[in-house]
């Protein structure tokens, strides 16, 4: 029901709603299985995945697009661990391997965000389920990212949490605009898994990931950039090599920020499309930092006319 107090409108939750004070940061356990769907609104892409995580076993597995692409992160393999990726390349199934190093050993990849630094924000319904909302804000340069995770606690405040929804919304203070957003919807969460799911297929010879070297981390571990709360992702780090390769010179800091943003969206589109197992592949080219309108004009497509011009 609604109550009015000193000019403010308050929504009083139902009797079964948990109190908002004294909450502990959600934990998901040291092993779990979960399904999810990554949504990239800018590219109109929805990408399903399924993940298995075993912290104590030092291993994880994430399948993309209903098993079309499978990634295994095995920290106990070789000296510093290894990542194995089983993926179709022009519809031919291939295996690629990325070995860990002393400086960068392979660790299991979580499909859920690390909630260090998150704070309880509010209680809110998501998909008709009352959830705790946990929030974290990070900033680097002009990039200000707000992360929110919706969780439920089936057995009470101190019980293991169940993830429901994750959202990142990016705001660029120089451009004064919300220029980035993606979401992950979770389902079928279980705080347990089985060890045999972490065994890569036998009988396959794994080669090295193709060049450029800078893209190896994104190719081997796609979800890392999405669940990380670092405002500077692997995709952002690829903008420097792109500018050098295509001799980019921007006339202002504002244009640089805009072009970097278009480049990030192009990166996500390329890698997500290539995980679909299609009969073709796409790649980063000279137009990766162009707007949709600029690409349309290059193809000879005229932008839609304004309503006032349609006579």
UniProtKB/TrEMBL annotation:
Domain annotation Cathepsin propeptide inhibitor: ranges: 239-295
Gene3D superfamilies on file: 1.10.287.2250
First and last residue of the signal peptide: 1-17
SMART domains registered for this protein in UniProt: Inhibitor_I29 (SM00848)
Keywords noted in UniProt: Signal
Pfam families hit by this protein: Inhibitor_I29 (PF08246)
Name of the protein in its database record: Cathepsin propeptide inhibitor domain-containing protein
Species: Cirrhinus molitorella (mud carp)
